[in-house]
Amino acid sequence: MSQGHDKKGRPLVAVTGMGVVTSLGNGKADNWAALTQGRSGIRSITRFPTDGLRTTIAGTVDTLKVSPYSAPSLSIAMALEAANEALHEAQAGSNGKFPGPLFLATPPAELEWPQRRALYQSALDKNESGYRRLLASARASDWDEMQSLFQFSSVANHVAERLGTRGLPTSVSTACASGATAIQLGVEAIRRGETDAALCIGTDSSVQIEALIRFSLLSALSTNNAAPEQASRPFSKNRDGFVMAEGAGALVLESYEGAKRRGARILGFVRGCGEKADDYHRTRSKPDGTAIIGAIRNAIDDACLSPDDIDYVNAHGTSTPENDKMEYLSLKAVIGDRVANVPMSSNKSMIGHTLSAAGAIEAVFSLLTIRNGTLPPTINYAVPDAEIPMDVVPNVARQARVQAVLSNSFGFGGQNAALVITAP
User: Would you say the pTM of this structure is higher than 0.90?
Assistant: First the structure.
């Protein structure tokens, strides 16, 4: 085994750049300062009217202005903001060209209510109605521009064009596991020798009225509207649902040998990727946790490590009653009795659940945890749950030497992914 390969003979995959945008701010510095101080980015929604809604709070990104506003436009803006920070740190690419492919996690694309209403109202033939009126409106409007935004590959296509990545960009949507899946695709491409570098991004601007209503109908969202900053309470006995949020995270991945050859600074390694799906329910996890357990085990095995090597868990920790308990039981099945002592915290207590972007954002936070030797806290932890006896780094950040992080991402539809990220 050479220095640049793992125990399985595969190229080591190094991280040479990272960038992030969340409700806490733009960039690693602002986000890390807020995370380690235990500040929340959850606030009342001002982007659209919330009268009559059960949930009126979210972790919105209000620092990037796009005009005219649309969900895809904000996703593109956040992805570019995070990617440019990562590329600047990695000093990767020249003349506007990145020397590798783009793997981008994004939610399914669809026209939101404002765009549908605009289409319907702009029909030339007022005698038409229903679907025919929508078609007439589409023909009469700037359909090419709308089509360039409201299709599944649109975000990746726009980002790839701006950053000059190689080949056709890959869009992936595996629910809340998407960001981790995008990173996994980049890792596997480098391991197969298809490329020396990959740009992996997760971006999500799903804080829209239609999505908010859908999640509310599932009784998945917190309704603690009176105290937004206290609404996300992962692993607490009084947790009552997750808080929707938006943001983007980006990693520049390179083969270790390629990074060393060009003198790049190694920020860490993505050592292991694990995934496992189940077909139990459209939203709920399989009660025995086999898929989540399998994803965690696969990631640790893929990293050529043992469960005892994990120093810290960046938990999925959504703040829903079922998911938090399932994550604890699954970790216990893998880690054993150490589960009570291995620190694990959820940054969703501060930024909310960024859905398709979560895995990528939390990979950035995992690397910052390693680099700074600081464990971000799980805030709003005032009422411990006796059924989840874990060290959740309650309320206050903690200093610790961290060599290996397990970062979990579990999605609706039984889509589960886990990453093992280690120190350089």
Answer: yes
Residue 350 one-letter amino acid: M
| CA-to-CA separations, 86 to 51, 253, 260, 269, 389, in angstroms, rounded | 39, 10, 17, 15, 37
* Rounded distance between C-alpha atoms, residue 314 and residue 351, angstroms: 14
Q: Which of 367, 418, 325, 384 is nearest to 35 (CA)?
A: 367
Q: Which of 158, 200, 273, 316 is catalytic?
A: 316
Is 353 among the residues known to form the active site? yes
Residues 180 and 137 reside in one and the same domain: no
Collapsing DSSP states into helix, strand and coil, what is residue 399? strand
Q: Which of 158, 200, 273, 353 is catalytic?
A: 353
Contact 416, 177 (CB under 8 A): yes
Residue 2 lies in a domain: no
Write the pLDDT tens digit of every residue in 325-352. 999 999 999 999 999 999 999 999 999 9
**For helices 358-372 and 28-36, what crossing angle results, to 10°?**
70
Instruction: Kindly tell me if the per-residue pLDDT of 421 is higher than 80.
Output: yes
**158, 176, 200, 273: which one is catalytic?**
176
Do residues 133 and 204 both lie within one domain? no
Asked about 176 being catalytic, the answer comes back as yes
Tell whether 315 is covered by a domain: yes
Asked whether residue 127 falls in the same domain as residue 241, the answer is no
**Domain boundary pick from 147, 167, 200:** 147
Active site residue 304: no
User: Is residue 8 in some structural domain?
Assistant: no
- Unique residue bearing structure tokens 């990272």: 18
Q: Tokens standing for 228?
A: 């937004």
